[in-house]
Amino acid sequence: MGFAEKHLQSLGSSNLMDDCFHHQTDALQAAARADKSARNIGSLLSRVKYADGTLGKKFEGNAQNLAGLLREWLAIVTEKGTARRWVKPEDIAIAPITFRRVANASLAHFLDGKCAQCHGTGVAESKRACIPCKGSGKIELTGLSGYEAKLVLDMVSELGAIESTHAAIASALLRKHDLVTEEIS
Fold first, then answer.
1. Residue pLDDT tens, the chain, 185 long
2. pTM (2 decimals)?
3. Ordered alpha helix ranges (H), 84-130
């Protein structure tokens, strides 16, 4: 079981006791500690992507989590865009608009960028490559300039890196905690 599954399981736990017999909060603690290691939005990103119904569409997601994630992500995109000089100095007035468009599109694509036709498999019912996504399993970015689309895909990869780094740190903390509890037992 990967960290995302453990994290989801702990979020849905009916018993949040934390003692030598109950360990359902371990993944929550590991996620929180992993976030403290840097300015990281990994825990919130995982919660919005996996627990708030974004992928399964089973229930209405927690709008406050999504709004908080978007706020944090916009700040990160603004920092990166400014540092990487995405906008020419003479066009600085459009910088906030560009940063917001890139932040919104990259977060939306990361959270739910699967092709609706093939459900992200890249294969159509006819066992051939899906035509709308051209076999990639991802929806095509629309409504953006070529330059903005390139920036969005770059930020989608940043989100993937944040998610995997957070999961790796939290998993390591969880394994370390498991070793400590085994020694105590």
1. 566 666 666 665 566 555 555 556 666 667 666 666 545 788 888 888 877 654 444 444 577 888 889 999 999 999 999 999 999 888 889 999 999 999 999 999 998 888 888 888 888 877 888 888 888 888 888 888 889 999 999 999 999 998 888 888 888 887 776 544 444 44
2. 0.74
3. 95-112
- Checking 153-159 for CB contacts under 8 A at 24+ apart, the result is 153/106, 153/109, 155/77, 155/80, 155/102, 155/103, 155/106, 156/106, 156/109, 156/110, 156/113, 158/76, 158/80, 158/106, 159/45, 159/73, 159/106, 159/107, 159/110
Q: Is 102 left (phi over 0), alpha (psi -120 to 50) or beta?
A: alpha
* Spatial separation of the C-alpha atoms in residues 61 and 54, rounded to whole Å: 7
How many CB atoms are located within 10 Å of the residue 83 CB? 8
